[in-house]
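Internal ticket #5521
Category: modeling
Description: The requester needs a full-assembly model to guide mutagenesis choices. All entity lines are attached below as received. Residue total reported by intake: 685.
Assigned to: D.W.
Attached entities:
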Amino acid sequence: MQVVYQRPKSLTDVPTHYCPGCTHGIIHRLVAEVIDELGVQSKTIGVAPVGCAVLAYNYFNVDMHEASHGRAPSVATGIKRVLPDRVVFTYQGDGDLASIGTAEIVHAATRGEKITVIFVNNAIYGMTGGQMAPTTLVGQPATTAPGGRKVERAGYPVRVAEMLSTLNGPAYIARVTVTDPGNVVKAKRAIKKAFQTQLDGKGFSLVEVLSTCPTNWGMPPAEAIKWLNENMIKYYPLGEFVGGEEAKSE
Amino acid sequence: MTAVGEMILMKGNEAIAEAAVRAGCRFFAGYPITPQNEIPEYMSRRLWEVGGVFIQAESEVSAINMLYGASGAGARCMTSSSSPGISLKQEGISYIAGAELPAVIVNMTRGGPGLGGIQPSQSDYFQATKGGGHGDYRLIVLTPATIQEMVDLTQLAFDLADKYRNPVMILGDAVLGQAMEPVEFRNKPVEEIPPKPWATTGWDGSRPRNIINSLYLQPEELEKHNLKLQAKYKEIEKNEKRWDTVNLRDAEVALVSFGTTARICRSAMEKARAEGIKAGIIRPITAWPFPDQPFEDALKLGIKKFLVVEMNYGQMLEDVKLAVNGRGEVAFYGRAGGMMPTPAAILDELRKLVGRGNR
Amino acid sequence: MAKRVVFDEDRCKGCELCVQACPKHIIRMAEDRINAKGFHPATVTDEDQEKCISCAFCARMCPDVVISVYRDEGRK
């Protein structure tokens, strides 16, 4: 028998603590598959966030560094500047990247740090039990926005991919999702492009992955996927914002 | 570049930067804040010359986290700031200590609290020695009194940081940063730094996978980790206490002071001696581990009166009281907020303490 | 016949994303057993293995790397 799919080498075989149906599992797998396919496992260093993925250092089979909340882009900057021939990536959630870490991600992007950022946007705070995130949609319920996010009280959600694409430093920015096999394939392609951008020395790369949080959205995994498709994509459109095919033809 | 043994007049901030480069520092991240701006400015030119990296980070928070990354990747690294910026770095320092990484942090203390002022003070002694950041960790704290000493202690700082895998702070002040004094770079520039098998350099299978981390969710494991740290701090306390004494042998009263204030105390001591008050000086050079030995020695010599002089409202005072432990009288004189004690004012306090002298 | 799709049952968390993803609709949650975690694991019956086209959509959706997929030699 020919192998069509097997566990990637860059993923350890430690069972993850993620909730059933949590898309973190899919995204971890894709990152590991890309690291395998690019052949860079032995020279990759990952930076784990504070959030559900805080234990990512148990799952990625590479040297890992645990960062404090929001500061992964700075930690990655330190590593990449000291070891410029290694592949350095951060893996961050929406509280980590878009709330406490906003300064760090903007400046790593505008400095053009040659790191790859995997940004998991599930419009909620997962690890701490469902509080509102900067990416929580208007009207979406959260434990700190009971009855749904209200514009008068909490303003509007932030579109990270678009925001960062106004800077000159980024060389590749894309937004993808993992709600069905077709999108999973597209997401992997974007993640691979992002890592390739780093390998080619082109600059900062970021892939925002629209993700589900069945537990804190209060729905089963399949329904959460439906909710994402029906609600998140119209506010957070998919596509390549920097370094995509259209940009190339300019 | 200045040759070993050559004397050069340098501003304190620039001297400490040059000393760091010679000590093997190849990564610096910092942020502008008065009165230490010459440190990042000097590094922004000098580090690239030796193949190092300088980054002006977007904040002091980001800078300390860049250090956390760079240190984890195996580089000798340094950041500098002044009081409010050092407050911002506290979480990062706790992480660096918890993850057992080497790093050098320079604080050119200014007046506080809050935005405070830009003149010197010693008001960050508590912050440096009693935590600052969260958790049961300790920072090795070096307190130079002259620019030459600051240069010499910079090499020591990097060596101690690597030896113990712990952050080290050089606790200076605005005077040490801004003044110009002749300095000699006594050590040969470091060519090779000690190997760091624990660094995240890429797992190629030739060693276990390296994880730089301070998270231990199981309390049994976190306790074990903490006990390991505590054992390390005991080692440091055993080996690394440093201090200086002047004229203690026949003294009836000891001035206790660190950093710039100790130099002012020297003038006060000479004035005191001129009018028959036998004053001596105990000058801690490590604020942590705090040197208890000179106090034992002083008490044995029959000295029963200690005057602690600081540019704050009584911080090292508490460590002195602990060291004297009720066996002598410990008085205090301090000025802060950017104002400096004068030799005349210190002399006045000495007179009061010994109960005599010209007024 | 060697299996085309293999489930590491004890890793399954019962999320059912594979059930949705399979274009041949041959994945079911096993009703007759639970795994070490307490979930009904995803599975394909021996008879249904024949119907598997080795597209690996299931493996691509699985967050827990439960599924390995194989293809018969000589089959495209």
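Resolution: model delivered.
Comment from assignee: The longest strand of chain A covers residues 170-177.
Ticket closed.
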